[in-house]
Specification:
Elements (H helix, E strand, L loop, with lengths): L3 E7 L4 H4 L29 E4 L3 H7 L6 E3 L16 H7 L1 H9 L11 H15 L4 E7 L1 H11 L15 E6 L3 E4 L10
Parallel strand pairs: 1-4, 2-3, 2-4
Antiparallel strand pairs: 1-5, 5-6
Helix pairs in contact: 3-4, 5-6
Protein name: Phosphoglycerate mutase
InterPro entries: His_Pase_superF_clade-1, His_PPase_superfam
Length: 190
């Protein structure tokens, strides 16, 4: 049986990230149009390219290729009324609600989606990939990558994982999901 190889890539930086705001459907901070296709040479063969539906993920996916499939399960967490709000403002105006949300994965004081619901959505999506051998590249959000890692590692450390823009992790399914840490080729070799 051929394994499923999943590369999860976080979208490129946005102004909301730079300003420590909860995301909206904002564009990338970089000139993504002139960089289209610039990362496609990094992957061998022809992996299946997936993207979350938001503008920032679709623009990032275009760095890897133009033939992408939009997958609703990869969408960002619904932050409800906190969309676009600065974290500093929440620390000042709603410190109890923010703290509650950070420690209670079932809580959603913002009226949106809880961390538990995000993890359940990601686990259901990962299950659909188990019968799809080959390489899949999925452009998504920090919350989705954190949810996948939390599930695969059987961890409760969701809030202890930082995901930087354009960072990537690899997961592999061959009977069970495993975190795969690829090595870096020594200089001068490919």
């Amino acid at each position: 049986m051929q394994a499923t190889r999943l590369t999860l890539i976080c979208h490129a930086r946005t102004v909301a990230q730079k300003l420590a705001r909860f995301p909206t459907n904002e564009t990338l901070e970089m000139d993504w149009q002139s960089a289209r296709g610039s990362r496609s040479v990094q992957s061998k063969g022809s992996p299946r390219l997936l993207s979350a539906p938001e503008l920032r993920t679709r623009q990032t996916a275009e760095l890897f290729g133009s033939d992408m499939e939009i997958v609703e399960a990869l969408r960002d967490c619904d932050f409800g009324r906190w969309k676009g709000v600065r974290i500093k403002d929440l620390q000042k105006n709603e410190p109890e609600q923010l703290q509650s949300w950070l420690v209670d994965q079932d809580g959603a004081p913002h009226g949106g989606e809880s961390v538990t619901k995000v993890i359940e959505r990601v686990v259901a999506w990962l299950t659909t990939l188990q019968s799809s051998p080959g390489h899949v590249i999925a452009i998504t959000h920090p919350f989705i990558i954190r949810a996948a890692l939390t599930h695969v590692l059987h961890s409760s450390a969701f809030n202890l994982i930082d995901v930087e823009p354009l960072s990537a992790i690899e997961l592999q399914f061959n009977g069970c999901w495993r975190l795969r840490l690829p090595g870096i080729a020594p200089e001068g070799t490919l």
